[in-house]
Amino acid sequence: xxxxxxxxxxxxxxxxxxxxxxxxxxxxxxxxxxxxxxxxxxxxxxxxxxxxxxxxxxxxxxxxxxxxxxxxxxxxxxxxxxxxxxxxxxxxxxxxxxxxxxxxxxxxxxxxxxxxxxxxxxxxxxxxxxxxxxxxxxxxxxxxxxxxxxxxxxxxxxxxxxxxxxxxxxxxxxxxxxxxxxxxxxxxxxxxxxxxxxxxxxxxxxxxxxxxxxxxxxxxxxxxxxxxxxxxxxxxxxxxxxxxxxxxxxxxxxxxxxxxxxxxxxxxxxxxxxxxxxxxxxxxxxxxxxxxxxxxxxxxxxxxxxxxxxxxxxxxxxxxxxxxxxxxxxxxxxxxxxxxxxxxxxxxxxxxxxxxxxxxxxx
Length: 363
Description:
Elements: E1 8-19, E2 22-33, E3 37-41, H1 48-56, E4 63-68, E5 71-72, E6 83-87, H2 98-108, H3 113-126, H4 142-154, E7 160-164, H5 172-189, E8 192-197, H6 200-206, E9 209-214, E10 217-222, H7 224-229, H8 234-239, E11 244-254, E12 257-262, E13 267-270, E14 281-286, E15 292-293, E16 302-314, E17 317-324, E18 328-335, E19 347-352, E20 357-361
Helix pairs in contact: 2-3, 2-4, 3-4
């Protein structure tokens, strides 16, 4: 799905926000399409929550524009923006029943009683909790409360739903279950969602596109596949997933691939979206799952000699660590198998495909 093919529910143009001398957001440009799930991802202080709150009307920008459904909304009050919000702490009213919590937004909008009842009952069915309508929030589990918070945000069918780390307070297993639940609800309702998280795996699992942020700026915007396999910066390569970053210098170009001489003298090749010059310092990113130990007689586009140092098994996957040269470390990741591992210090050949190796300017 691309924003050029469907209606844009949200448009952000050159948004800037400062707090004293701190520039929290600088030149943010963003489009959210109808039915799209877009995640703002980044470390603490990267600007993702500042951007979300500006869109929500809870944080006035210094400059720039926000359009919702084609209407200028930069300085509109929050209640006039046709958005739904889901927070990490649920924000349910403890003295109200679940039915009344969900119905609250509809009553504020002066919906007729019969339509309100119909809408609340429908959304409780969608989140698969019709039996809790008469209960109070304290009588529900954390996962159930978060599903009710989702229901409350969805019940009046807003143009955009904003979610600020909604699963951050849950344990890992429940968080993974609710990731799939939110994906199901998003697909079923075909709503536009802008989601904030610092969890890389969560972003990869849930998103149509990811907006990676760093120090108030958008570092890269694209699909999970694009950011994972074709990062445009070292920060993007290192932040999203695990990566081997091999130091080297550009040696030339050959039939669309970049030739790189590594620190130990090995010449390898990869792809790049950058204009590079011969002799330029670069880093070659190779994801650990694309790096393989080669059997005797087996070949690959890129091959280097490495010394095995250790192996770490974490359930279904195993990481094997190696060194090349004097201090360059790298590792592979593969499905766990029974059997003996290599001996410490043993020399092995590692191989990978050129199309899976991304050459990036060294920062």
